[in-house]
Write a structure and sequence with these properties.
Strand content of chain A: 25-35%
Largest sheet of chain A: 9 strands, mixed
Helix content of chain A: 25-40%
Shape of chain A: globular
Number of strands of chain A: 28
Structural class of chain A: alpha/beta
Oligomer: homodimer
Chain lengths: ~575, ~575
């Protein structure tokens, strides 16, 4: 990316030599690097299973038919699919580094993910994007990026950064940047807000995609949003909503992730008439969900179980996302396409047995190939591990006697109701103190309020995963434990913690931007589940995810009440209380 | 294109203002520029007819539903289709200037054509491409270009230019250049010829499309050709050939033009399973064919008559070509798309009644809007009208007593057979003299031979439309008339002529590069038909197109014998005779 690396003539010459070798192999004059012998494979173009050898050279598929290879692998009894594609994910939601994420999804046949680094960018701004780009370079899952469109997510948020169109713009020449990530600020777009629309305009000027996020938007507002230049939506939760968008030209990303699952409701899209405009995405995948269910392979399996034609499901799981994102060299098994393969036992069980990335066997019956950590420059490596800038709070920082609004939790939802005011913790009525501690710029802002329905009987629970600004959010029965929980997280440079009487009972350090661990997915999952158990042991209701629930309480776009670093906000009225 | 015109910030700002107006109109806060009221329109995304108003602002569709406009047009009783797209045409084949061509196809609902300026480039090299780019700028049909890949078409040709990858490359930044035109030199690609493959590599380096041309190619050769990076084919004449290519990832351009008509044979592609990978093209459209049958509208009508679902036919006629060429703002009726409409009476008769280009009514019930001639710079305007550089031949130039090979015409085909040798014209046996006169670089090369089966009994017939090098080809019963025919064409700076006893009996001047007229399509057609009649009156067989037949006799890629400026060539053996 930086500066002069080779002449254009030199680049063409090198590509030419590689292309000539590809032609030699395809024409049968030279042995292939790899041949998948006797393959039954999904042909996404004709919508059928084809059979034959698949010849690979220079990381590309070069021929189909009968070939000989330096390496050969017999594919009898399996089905070869193109590598699967997740069309939209916030990789940070897995709580692990990009490399560990890749290790987790590769065994599920994923070879490309389109990632929106919205969380880390709210913490670190463009440095967060640069870090993610470097930390994914050369990994055996091709991690592509959409540049976050809404940082901060709302004007009243104290995030770590504020991105305008020039910031966004500066990434569009990167070869792994596909466009502008989900434009959540649809009211801003519809109102024609200049700063918001400028990001769309700049993306279009670079011929980049712009993803949408507009649950239930309809009528002229939907027209305005789409006419502005938003090409997809992954927030459809019923088929009427999806069809209204599809008819207006949007591509529909059928989301089946951890927090939101829309596949069942959107099954009517997976028919001849509409499936061509659909792809799969997960949006958010938490560690246990990734480990237990899988990734895009899980969506394919579920879609087939719900009655979708299996070949159609595979087409949706790879080729359509590739075409949408103009990644025209993948998502299919044909000459010239990347040799990315997810080999499955059969199209119904869809258990991935081996995975190839650019012709390299990277996963084989439970065994992952070695994945070297991508080099990240020193500045970013240090910066990403040093994102907590706050004066350590004391118990006194949380002491307060003024009446504060009470956020009423709603079972099974992330919305809240307005439950009036409280002046103190009241365990009888399950009223706890809740605070958001600004941690990016040492503003010493601490927003205070109360919350009802969480269930904690003793101690405090805190997390630095706190959408979308990722300040530290803490709930407690007493000010001392709230202070220790926050300080413990600050000491760890991020994480999730459960504290009682000053003792740490649950602990998941997340030192990468306060969002991601340096450990493996398994280790993270274990620490997380153990911390959850600790929170439940302290009284948090069994139906409540102690941390995920908290992580949404500071997101000032979900009704009715939310807590920001400035105090409780009435989201509906957009007023501080 | 040339140099600094505006700052990037200024460009974004101007686009932003326009986008904000689009949003105002879409949201219903401001009146649209134009509303097509009560429209029944083809929705290419859902494959159905939808109804409602179509609102247009700033040349784009902005909303669907209920809108008010500064201008309103009632669409009751009609069907609104997206503007039609010809995916591959040699515009020169219509024998008129680009502006006249546009005037001819606009009434047929065509709003975008993908043009391969192969003919003019063989005459003028990159100047020919620059001329075509300038001569099409701002026309109400968006003329897009694929840069010719094979100039000259074969190594033994004496064309006006020789393009290497650097020449081709220099056009890829032009906003109306979509890629590399039909790669006819498939043997070169399959052999891995560096100069040939470099053009593909350079196109890929610019993320451009590469069109194919590979009749009946199959097996490993087809794999090699596709793996090299050729994304489409328009030469399929049977469904097996087409399916082999489609299965390997190529897009299929179903061609229905003047010389080649493949629609009927390829009808099985126009089903749910395959149609998504298909588009329509004409390749070549001669004046009478354009005037009598129409353009892409004719193909839609014919496809429907042959049993294709009409909505599917419309999808193939617009949206699929748009997606293939990454012209993602057209080929559909949805917010954000170009307001290009072909309004037809009904989907079966498919008579175009009105046409809109970017929201402007450009054709209305037989009446075309005024179309200003695009400004072409003086150098190119002069250059394009001065492409004949030859020393005037005399009768003596054609005098010859050596035995020369006889090209045997095959009724209804453009192939020839080898009919041995002749030493003189023999009207009894219908053996005529044929010559190709080099006219680009005054090399004084004149290739001589004989032809059997043409039928001429007196005089000479000549044309400067002579694939692919466009030297002057002439057939005659005597050397004097051959010389005058050639000189008449040279005097006219190009054209088609019929001469007898020194008198010009048929005459179509084609002063634009020797390929295109400055007149209207109607005038050209009249002159052409009259010249044909003159040729037939002199004895040319009634089943023979006197000029088109001639125009292929110098194309040294069609078996068996051809005539070049160096004499008769055995194409099969690649040997001069």
């Amino acid at each position: 990316m930086a500066g002069y690396t080779e002449s254009y003539a030199g680049k063409i010459n090198r590509k030419l030599l590689k292309k000539q070798r590809i032609i030699e192999v395809a024409a049968g004059r030279e042995k292939a690097d790899l041949v998948l012998k006797n393959a039954t494979y999904v042909n996404v173009f004709s919508g059928e299973l084809c059979t034959g050898d698949i010849a690979v050279a220079e990381g590309l598929i070069v021929g189909l038919g009968q070939y000989e290879g330096l390496q050969e692998a017999d594919m009898s009894g399996c089905i070869v699919c193109p590598g699967l594609i997740d069309a939209h994910i916030h990789l940070e939601s897995a709580l692990v580094s990009p490399r560990e994420f890749v290790k987790a999804v590769l065994p599920h046949g994923t070879t490309t993910v389109i990632c929106d680094p919205h969380e880390i960018t709210n913490v670190m701004g463009t440095d967060g994007i640069d870090y993610m780009l470097q930390a994914t370079e050369g990994l055996p899952v091709d991690v592509r990026f959409m540049i976050p469109s809404c940082v901060p997510a709302a004007p009243m948020e104290e995030a770590g950064a504020n991105l305008d169109y020039r910031d966004v713009d500066s990434f569009f020449d990167h070869p792994r940047v596909q466009g502008l990530a989900e434009m959540m600020n649809y009211p801003g777009v519809i109102a024609g807000d200049g700063a918001t629309v400028a990001k769309i305009v700049a993306s279009q000027a670079h011929h980049k995609k712009i993803d949408g996020h507009a649950p239930d938007l309809q009528g002229k507002d939907l027209d305005a949003y789409i006419a502005a230049g938003v090409y997809s939506d992954h927030e459809c939760h019923d088929v009427e909503d999806a069809l209204a968008k599809l008819r207006r030209g949007q591509f529909i990303m059928i989301r089946e992730g951890t927090a939101a699952r829309n596949l069942e409701a959107l099954m009517p899209l997976l028919t001849e008439k509409y499936y061509d405009r659909c792809m799969f995405c997960t949006d958010d995948k938490h560690p246990s969900d990734l480990l237990e269910k899988g990734h895009i392979d899980y969506i394919v399996r579920k879609a087939v179980a719900l009655g979708c034609d299996p070949i159609m499901a595979v087409q949706v799981a790879c080729h359509h996302a590739a075409r949408y994102f103009l990644l025209n060299n993948r998502g299919a098994i044909a000459p010239g396409y990347l040799a990315d393969f997810a080999v499955v036992d059969n199209l119904r069980d869809f258990n991935v047995v081996t995975v190839y990335k650019k012709g390299r066997l990277v996963y084989d019956h439970g065994v992952l190939a070695e994945i070297a950590p991508p080099p990240v420059e020193g500045y970013l490596q240090a910066r990403v591990h040093d994102t907590f800038h706050l004066t350590r709070p004391t118990a006194g920082s949380f002491a307060d006697s003024r009446p504060r609004a009470v956020l009423g939790m709603v079972p099974g939802e992330i919305t809240t109701t307005d439950r009036g005011y409280a002046t103190a913790v009241d365990l009888e009525r399950d009223i706890l103190k809740i605070a958001v501690v600004e941690r990016h710029k040492n503003t010493r802002h601490i927003g205070l309020g109360y919350i009802q329905g969480y269930g904690l009987k003793s101690g405090a629970v805190a997390t630095s995963v706190s959408h979308d600004s990722h300040n530290i959010i803490v709930v407690g029965t007493n000010d001392e434990d709230m202070a220790s929980a926050v300080n413990h997280i600050a000491d760890n440079h991020g994480g999730i913690t459960v504290v009682e009487g000053g003792r740490v009972l649950g602990d998941l350090p997340l030192p990468i931007a306060g969002l991601m661990s340096d450990g493996t997915l398994e280790a993270v999952n274990e620490a997380l589940e153990s911390a959850k158990a600790a929170a439940h042991a302290l009284g948090v209701g069994p139906d409540i995810d102690p941390f995920m629930t908290l992580s949404f309480m500071a997101l000032p776009v979900i009704p009715t009440l939310r807590l920001t670093t400035r105090g409780v906000l009435d989201v509906t009225r957009q007023q501080d209380i």
